[in-house]
Amino acid sequence: MPAYQADLIATPVSCTRPAQLELPPRRFNNAGAMNANLKPLLVIFAAILLVVGYSVYSRATRKPEVIPWVADLATAKAESAKTGRPVFAYFTADWCPPCQQMKATTFADDGVKRALESYVPVKIDVDRHTGLAGQYGAHAIPTMVVIDPAGNEKARMVGYLDPDDMIKWLGAAPRPTTMPSTQPQ
């Protein structure tokens, strides 16, 4: 028998039990309750799910705006000069909560739509048209400005208006006293 095989036979084999392994702490106790470290994370996750769910639900059930907004102020002024109807300039922004509330309530109301039929309504985003916002002093939003066909400011309102208050305000806003000439010059 070669020497290396003899060494293998002569070496005693140990049958002792290996050292006890230390296991990481369990995440659940015997009753199935969560570790206290995970509870705040689950609360945050649940809150996020609620906010996202409410947002999706509110957008899905929101009435659409019914106001036929004119594309820009220059077009609204030209139409105002032609028809004699004053311009209703609404200064707003996507990030403005009262503006978004008005979009969902006031400007989705059929009574407000009827009241605005005697105006040329134009929606102006203050972030895209900072010059116009400055020119008309729309430093706080929402701001509504009534402009006569000659381009003069006749009325101003700053802040949220519900549909009833908007209809009352539009009814009280000064109107032009003369209609523009419809005859060719």
What does the secondary structure layout of this molecule look like, with pairings?
Layout lengths: L2 H8 L28 H23 L11 H11 L3 E6 L4 H8 L5 H6 L4 E6 L4 H6 L7 E5 L5 E6 L4 H10 L13
Parallel strand pairs: 1-2
Antiparallel strand pairs: 1-3, 3-4
Labels describing this entry:
12% strand, 4-stranded mixed β-sheet, single chain, disordered C terminus, alpha+beta, 185 residues, 2 domains
Can you give a write-up of this model?
The protein is α+β, with helices and mostly antiparallel strands and 185 residues long. It has 2 domains: 37 residues, no CATH class; 100 residues, Glutaredoxin (3-Layer(aba) Sandwich), CATH 3.40.30. The chain has a 4-stranded mixed β-sheet. A hairpin with a 5-residue loop joins strand 3 and strand 4. The termini are far apart. The C terminus is likely disordered.
Number of strands: 4
Going by helix content, strand content and strand pairing, the class is: alpha+beta
Helix content: 25-40%
The first-to-last residue Cα distance is 128 Å
Low-confidence stretches: 177-185
Q: What proportion of the residues form beta strands (DSSP E)? A: 5-15%
Mean pLDDT: 81
The CATH superfamily label of the largest domain reads: Glutaredoxin
What is the CATH topology classification name of the largest domain?
A: Glutaredoxin
Topology as H/E string? HHHEHHEHEEH
Largest sheet: 4 strands, mixed
Q: How many whole angstroms does the radius of gyration measure?
A: 36 Å
Physical arrangement of strands within the biggest beta sheet: 2-1-3-4
Give me the oligomer status.
single chain
Number of domains: 2
Shape: elongated
Number of helices: 7
CATH architecture of the largest domain: 3-Layer(aba) Sandwich
